[in-house]
């Protein structure tokens, strides 16, 4: 007769201490932080990378589908570019929608894996980061997760080589899992897209590779201060790390925060559905672009790619190219000495649950340059006019380079005085620790807010010059 299964603690507090030690360690066992840029530069020179714009007619294995006009791959896999129609009503329903628009959107129903491998060296957790080329990144090569692959990629639908180290993440040992959660991607450009964000610890001797390096969390935090260095997929995984809560007090209890958000989510009537790309109103298609009639928002373009260290060396594909540099910002304010950030319950047409917690400001300022101040996004001017002394953190980061071309945002955390800012309807104050707790569950924190969470952790590694106040933890 077998013995009963032993129970175990629901929380691993020792693991939180190990993660905190890694975050406090800025000298890794394998590479100095100041040498990472040189390593990335060396990998660029060692490989053959090239991205060139092409007209749609030069796309190989991609075509505009008869009838719908959707841009599809001949295999039926990877992704499609379709149309999306979004209608938002006030509650209770008014006679006319508050917002109603149509746009192109990427539909990729398969769930990809964003996985970082962890291992202890000299008593400190290190994480295996990859020098990975993505065609849409402005400098092509950035610091990426150990594995970054769609299901089409790791099942080799492209006919290329196997994704290295994928087996650690497809069927992970649950005793070795640090992070494993489905998270959304950009709801403005994707239709209900999710990826599996994972960190898995190993005791194996992982084969050496010129494109992989072990780094501590403290080293990665330092690198998050650099423009266009740590890619979006790495940032979203890092934001989900279960650090210990160093600030157990907050303006609102966790239950109050969740109740407020549940009310915001249930109180919105937002309906999104797919439509044929050929029928999207307000957009026009040319030989090399699909773009808005006003020349704003973004374009759909096509590129030819050469990447000698990828599973497939040459390919063509469509990409979304935003118009202008984005701005993503948290306003930061202390209550009784505890830092909080101002979050909004933001609706985006492509999100699975339509509403997620988002940064205070998330927009492309150029799209609002022509409108009156009253019609601009709330708090946009407070961020744009912030003096350098108020800026806790800022860097320019690229968005997902596998689907977006030159998509960059300035990520900022701005201090405000107690009486400067009052939360508007749809906004509330929360601590970073409260948001980090919510990243353990999918579809609560949007991808832009998750990047900012990862960046706020970087403040502890290197506070802004001249900034004397307590760091956001």
Automatic annotation (TrEMBL):
Residues 34-241, 255-456 form the dTDP-4-dehydro-6-deoxy-alpha-D-glucopyranose 2,3-dehydratase domain. Gene3D superfamilies: EvaA sugar 2,3-dehydratase subunit (3.90.79.40). One of its GO terms (molecular function) is lyase activity. InterPro entries: EvaA-like, EvaA-like_sf. DTDP-4-dehydro-6-deoxy-alpha-D-glucose 1 binds at residues 62, 150-154, 233, 400-403. DTDP-4-dehydro-6-deoxy-alpha-D-glucose 2 binds at residues 188, 283, 346, 362-364, 367-368. It holds the Pfam family Hexose_dehydrat. This is NDP-hexose 2,3-dehydratase.
């Amino acid at each position: 007769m077998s013995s009963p299964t032993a129970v175990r603690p629901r929380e691993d507090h020792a693991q939180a201490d190990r993660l905190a030690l890694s975050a406090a360690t800025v000298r890794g066992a394998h590479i100095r932080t100041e040498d990472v840029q040189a390593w990335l530069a060396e990998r660029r020179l060692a490989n053959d990378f090239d991205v060139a714009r092409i007209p749609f007619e030069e796309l190989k294995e991609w075509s505009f589908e008869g009838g719908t006009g959707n841009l599809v791959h001949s295999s039926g896999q990877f992704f499609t570019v379709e149309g999306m129609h979004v209608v938002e009503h006030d509650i209770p329903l008014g006679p006319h929608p508050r917002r109603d628009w149509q746009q192109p959107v990427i539909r990729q129903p398969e769930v990809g894996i964003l996985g970082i491998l962890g291992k202890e060296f000299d008593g400190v957790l290190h994480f295996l980061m990859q020098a990975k080329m993505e065609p849409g990144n402005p400098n092509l090569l950035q610091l990426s997760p150990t594995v970054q692959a769609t299901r089409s990629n790791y099942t080799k639908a492209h006919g290329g080589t196997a994704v290295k180290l994928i087996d650690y993440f497809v069927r992970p040992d649950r005793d070795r899992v640090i992070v494993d959660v489905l998270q959304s991607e950009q709801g403005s450009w994707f239709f209900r897209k999710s990826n599996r964000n994972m960190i898995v610890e190993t005791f194996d001797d992982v084969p050496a590779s010129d494109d992989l390096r072990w780094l501590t969390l403290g080293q990665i935090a330092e690198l998050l201060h650099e423009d266009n260095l740590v890619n979006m997929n790495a940032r979203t995984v890092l934001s989900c790390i279960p650090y210990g809560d160093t600030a157990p007090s907050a303006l609102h209890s966790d239950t109050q925060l969740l109740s407020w958000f549940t009310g915001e989510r249930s109180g919105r009537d937002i309906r999104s559905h797919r439509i044929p790309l050929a029928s999207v109103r307000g957009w026009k298609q040319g030989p090399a672009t699909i773009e808005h009639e006003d020349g704003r928002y973004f374009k759909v373009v096509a590129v030819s790619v050469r990447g000698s260290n990828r599973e497939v060396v040459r390919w063509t594909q469509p990409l979304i190219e935003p118009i202008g540099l984005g701005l993503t910002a948290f306003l930061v304010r202390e209550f009784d000495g505890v830092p909080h950030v101002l979050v909004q319950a933001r609706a985006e047409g492509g999100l699975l649950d339509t509403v997620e917690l988002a940064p205070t400001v998330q927009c492309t300022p150029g799209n609002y340059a022509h409108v009156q101040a009253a019609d601009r996004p709330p708090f946009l001017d407070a961020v744009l006019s912030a003096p350098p002394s108020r800026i806790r953190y800022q860097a320019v980061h690229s968005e997902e380079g596998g689907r977006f071309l030159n998509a960059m945002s300035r990520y900022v955390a701005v201090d405000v005085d107690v009486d400067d800012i009052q939360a508007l309807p749809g906004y509330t104050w929360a601590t970073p620790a409260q948001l980090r707790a919510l990243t353990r569950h999918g579809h609560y924190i949007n991808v832009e807010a998750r990047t900012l969470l990862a960046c706020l952790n970087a403040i502890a590694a290197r506070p802004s010059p001249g900034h004397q106040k307590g760091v956001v933890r």
